[in-house]
Putative dehydrogenase
Amino acid sequence: MPSQNSIGVGLISVGVMGRLHARSYLQSSQFFPELPRRAELVVAADPDAGGRAYASDALGFRETTTDYRQLLAHPDVDVVSICSPPFLHHEMALAAVEAGKHFWIEKPMGRSARESRDIAERAGAAGLFTGVGFNYRHAPAVAEARRLIRTGALGRITNLQLRMITSYASDPAQPFTWRYEEAQAGSGALADVLSHGFDLAQFLVAPIKSVSSVTERFIPKRTVPGTGETREVENEDYAAVLARFEGGVVGVLETTRVAVGPHAEYIVEVYGTEGSLRWNFDRMNQLELADDGSGYRTIMTPTSYGEFGRFQPNAGPGIGFNDLKTIEAALFLRSVAEGRQLAPSAADGWSAAEIVDAALRSAASGEWVDVPVVSGSLTTQA
Ligand SMILES: NC(=O)c1ccc[n+]([C@@H]2O[C@H](COP(=O)([O-])OP(=O)(O)OC[C@H]3O[C@@H](n4cnc5c(N)ncnc54)[C@H](O)[C@@H]3O)[C@@H](O)[C@H]2O)c1
């Protein structure tokens, strides 16, 4: 039985992201002590025995189960994290809605815009609060970039350039996994990587209205583990997207999952009539600003940027990727506690999914494709 001032957490899937969600819940009350209820890890669900053992022994969950439906039925569970591979997200999110549990779900939210829309609309109709794993918008330097853009420090924004270059799939000998199968993952680098970029670009500048894109597959086959047989990779390794934003801004967004060299070079550059700025996840505690005609200068994140001061009260060495998830956990828990939807929400997951779908349709047809307007996205950040 959780105490009165705690909020019971159920974790679905104890993989890489599930473990991080659990740590982030625990850290949220340390870095955000004003949260009215402290997260308590109640039950974790995973068919994998190793994951369940980690949940109880390392993370401190009171109970574990192989069946996520048992978790959703648990009376002490108030909120749920959904950290499974994407093919299970739709089914699990709808079951969470049915059980009346607020949920924080990893990206890509659904395998398609249709699945993502279904999740967002059903959660909204049930009056539930949601969080979605668009962690890069929580970087303090990104929060400052958004403030500078919003307050007109760069003048009128003209264009944006964004690159998300990763190497996680660059080794052709790496086995076939869920990421390469359409039925399990949906699309490839577009959904898995560039959905983050679509969210970041919209968060910084404005909603994306239409896209024109090309996609490419560079490693066409991979070996199925344990069989020695090869299987065709069903989705794209690479995508380049031209975008038109609301308000006349234009942009170029590019991604690959098979770059040899850069691990996570996620760079966004925003250009305006009075200046430019640049942020690179590889150096996430820096913001580059060019607003006085003398080129870029590098600003080391001060305590005033976003939530930086909570982690480094003396403007110390910097924060890391895991801290972004703590900020995300706190936003989700605040949404539930305050009874108002803070972003990023399921509507933002749906919005990014509409852009992914539009980009896929454009790549197939060679035409510009309009992106449907998504209601409820880009709501209050904090
Ligand atoms: N936000 C980010 O930056 C980020 C980074 C990496 C991954 N992700 C996303 O997180 C999600 C999970 O990715 P991951 O890297 O943690 O994957 P993973 O392969 O490490 O973990 C997946 C887990 O799901 C479990 N699982 C499988 N079937 C299940 C079922 N029926 N019920 C419960 N659990 C089940 C597996 O046993 C495994 O523990 C994906 O949507 C991925 O795109 C987000």
In short: The two ends are 31 Å apart (CA to CA). The chain has two domains: 6-135, 137-320+339-370. Residues 154 and 314 are 28 Å apart (CA to CA). The longest strand covers residues 157-166.
